[in-house]
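Entry for the shared binder. Reason: the reviewer on the internal report wants the predicted structure included alongside the sequence.
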Amino acid sequence: MKNQLFQGEYVSSDRLLYTPSEFAKNNLMYLQEIGRLTAQKPHTSKRQNLSSFLFIYVKSGSGFIDYEGKEYAVSCGDCVFINCQNLYSHRTSNDLWSIEWIHFNGENLLPIYLKYIERGGQPVFRPDDPSRFMHLWDELNSVSRSSDYIRDIKINEYLSGLVTFLMTFSWNPEITQQSGSSKTVSALKEYLGTHYQEKITLDMLADNFLMSKYTLSRSFKEQVGTSIINYLLVVRITHAKQMLRFTDKTVEEIGASCGITPLYYFSRMFKQIEGVSPLEYRMSWK
């Protein structure tokens, strides 16, 4: 069936197998294969242990994705994002589908994919507006078939756009669509951004937002991807960096202005985030 599949008995396809440069493989996100197909007959494609990540967009028709022991029904407008090291298969239904796909990889893609999963990303999702992906696919398809001497750099740029697309439209799909706590989390982020100089505790936030601190903390992490405490620390350090660069305040004054005291604790937290001490940061921007 595999040979018949590629010969056109089962699908009509247009695909490009791409060979990236050694530089691209070692330093960039790189393309492995890009294509589109329209099914002529119901068929199944099954693979695993591929060093690749797969993105599929269903242009018309419908089918099924089997991934990590679960079956997902997909139809026109759905997107698929999976790690091909894991066992997967895809098959069209009797409503024969037309799909576009991209196989790609890169040194940093596994951590990105794991973050995608951690933040609630699903193997199958439906974006509000797929036109952005369609544009990316067209650009990738065009540049990968060109003789442009910097095409690997351009491919990396478009794949970065694809990753941004994935994160924008698929992180926490169920939470953002179904949870009534999203407005509370938005209000909490705004509160932290304007009250970072003050002493803030989870108990105080729970009282202010009329929610248990456990529910508030869980909702915040689900939707923002980090804890309230860590988010607040990053807000404070960001303001500290601005003062270190653009004011003559002492390090101790800046720490106090950002709500982080005593001085030794501020210095330790700053170095934890930035990798250098507040003074070293200030001097590097002189």
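Summary line for the report: Residues 151-170 form the longest helix (20 residues).
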